[in-house]
Amino acid sequence: MGAVGLGIAGLAITGLTAAGLAPAGTGISGTAIAAEAPAPASHRAAKGRHRAGRSVPIRQQGPVGVARHSGTTTRHSRSGNAHIVDSPESMVISAHRIASHGATEMVTRQTMDHFTAGTSPMQILALTTPGANFASDDAFGLDTLANTLYIRGFNQSQLGVSMDGIPMGGQGFHNWNGLGVDQMAIQENISSMTLTQGAGAVEMPSAQTLGGAITFTTDDPQDKAGGRISQTFGSFDLFRTFARADSGILNSTGTKFYASYARTAQDLWKGFGDQQEHQANFKLVQPVGSHGKITAIFDYSNFDQYNFMSLTKNMWRLLGRNTTYLKPDYAKAKEYAYYAQNGGIPPGLPAGITNDEVGDFAYDGTQEQRNYLSALRGDFDLAANVTSHSVAYGHISNGVYQGTNPFLISPSSGTLMADEAGHPDVRRLGLTQSFDIKLRRHTIQTGLWYENDRFNYPMRLYEDGADAAHNSKSNYYAYQATTWFADSFNTNTFQFYIQDVWHLMRDMTLTGGFKSLTQTTHGGTSFDQTAALADSWGTYYSHPASGSLTASSAFLPHFNWDWHFGGHHELYWDIAENMRAYDFGTQSGSGNPWGGLGSSSNSAQSVFDAGKATLKPERTWNYVVGYRFNSEFFSGSADFYHTDYINRLAAITSGPTNNIYAAFLNVGHETMNGADVLGAIRPVKGLEITNSFSWNNATYEDSALPYNGTTISIKGKHQVYYPKFMYKANLTYTWHHASFNFNTTYTSRRAMTYTNDEYIPSYWTSNLNASYDFGRVLFAHEMKLSLGVTNLFNSDYIGGVYGAASVSGDDNANLFVAAPREFFGTIAAQF
């Protein structure tokens, strides 16, 4: 594998990218310090809470990446075609040439078409863009639990994300404040995505951005009536269908719409179960004379997935990549639960497996997520030099996050495990309003964003029987369950921004502006009966706490300079300060001010009240300087960036040795230096070879971190979960109607503990895709056949990570093994 990667390297030019921090915290397990996103409140969180003397994992955030854009967005003309706003941060979207600009990288529809239909846009983004790292446990990258995205050290819960101007919040699992891209839009309907890897983008409606932003744009309905359909088949009984119908222009006013549907179904590549995704997108465009247009959007998704079980590195090495949940062997699941609760190792497990790791096994784990997103957008020319962009949106999300908990008891049957299911209910309502005002050499851009987010989460217990478990996919009604606890939150967010794009010269701009952000969250535990259920269900301390917190900053500045010269050259720099509002999450989770606090002898409420007086929201100062060269034969870019990460927050065990409890504290600073270098050469018509290299040195500055009744030092240790080096090579060749794409990625080892005593091993992975366009066939205007292979050389490596990182040692089961080699074929037609 290394030889193949080096061979491609020899064909191409080089590149450089950077940095990292850890993902969302999965339950309370092991001696953990920080997790980078809300932890699930299902069985995954049970292990550490149950065991005496184990600490609660804590959350920590790392720098988030931005893209090679310096701060503005692409606007749409009355005709619906995109064009450049007068700003250094715009991207050109046209039928002719599409290029990156400033500190922003763009991935076009043409690039996305080189990958297997339905592949997650986040996965495509990482395979083609310096500084981005994406890993999962399934070939399509659609498993929301295991997916891990980092952009220059910041994870998916720390990025600003929008789609067609609609705020999309965090992209991680349990994203109570947003919606993941795989559930908001069918991949074929996305026309482009831009990744802002600079220092900031003040116009992005986001309360969690610490460094950068991703903007997704979906295409408008076609002017001519028609349709598209594609069918994909693949390994492990993969079956994916996509269909879209465009109405064409219906009347003299220009009304047009499209409706589309996609279904993806595939068996798990190991263990029992499958993963199914249903998606529907509807978009209507109504021009309003010559003054603008109104766009209506409705999106629906239903993700119904059996999960893969997360592992420790020790389990992966001793038991192999196929290790997963015990279903359908119910007898073995009960046996493992007995040993988990009573100590010892079940027969048949190899030497070296610990009792802690026996407790990481469970019968099964599933998730069902349903999302409904509606939006009404208006784009109007109010005057010759004033344009207005308005978006009103509503998002409803609900589902079931289920898992067998081997540390509970089903009281009627006496079985030493029970089905634990969280029932999230999210409702987001909001609006954005922005104006662009052109005044000779200046373009003033200003706007505001308001959102109300209501979140409810009851945790319910369902009995497992003596001979069979509770059904994993049905009968999750309140009347059939015993409610353990319930959490409720209400969040109000307000953001205002203003910036001036000053055209100093014809090809030189200076942008200066700021945003003001305020977010207030009220809520916490609304119901808890842990004590009442302790004898019958074996419930343990669940950390109830409630109260309100506000994160606010009136002035978060952003400055950018961009100069194009000599016809092919560009220089730019970005400077910005960013603030991230507080996460909120369930009491049984971690990584937020309300979750996983206290202990049975030191109440969560008292810890919350004490922390409220001292907590301050996280901030970053980001600096980027870069150079880009573009010509017909060669394109190259080089960026250097520096981040000061201030007031890093983490859940951590605190207090004296005789009264240790979990708290959420400021644990110090982090600094990050990194660079990305990219080169693309086009030696002959149709052939492009791209190489990029990324380097990042993100280190903690904490020399006396309170932990477990004492202090530890992690000063100078590298950020967890993000590689220090990445190398990517892409070779694309188009000849007449045939197209070929090969990409390979090297990811260096990733620290998996804060003391850096354990690492996730480095790996190479490669993908191969080929297609042939047959042109007109019978009644189809275009018929295309595509073939693809993922993980071409069948590498066995750790992909996604979800959960708290340990201070030291290999104790947390938070690693997901990547999918093996898989084959796919797609036939697509356009009418």
From TrEMBL:
One Pfam family in the UniProt entry: TonB_dep_Rec_b-barrel
Gene3D superfamilies recorded: TonB-dependent receptor, beta-barrel domain (2.40.170.20), TonB-dependent receptor, plug domain (2.170.130.10)
InterPro entries associated with the record: Beta-barrel_TonB, Beta-barrel_TonB_sf, Plug_dom, Plug_dom_sf, TonB-dep_rcpt-like
Membrane topology according to the record: Multi-pass membrane protein
Domain TonB-dependent receptor plug residue range list: 102-207
UniProt subcellular location: Cell outer membrane
TonB-dependent receptor-like beta-barrel domain ranges (all copies): 329-792
Region described as Disordered: 63-82
Main location: membrane
Keywords attached to this entry: Cell outer membrane, Ion transport, Iron, Iron transport, Membrane, Receptor, Signal, TonB box, Transmembrane, Transmembrane beta strand, Transport
Membership in a protein family: Belongs to the TonB-dependent receptor family.
Name of the protein this chain belongs to: TonB-dependent receptor
Organism listed in the record: Asaia krungthepensis NRIC 0535
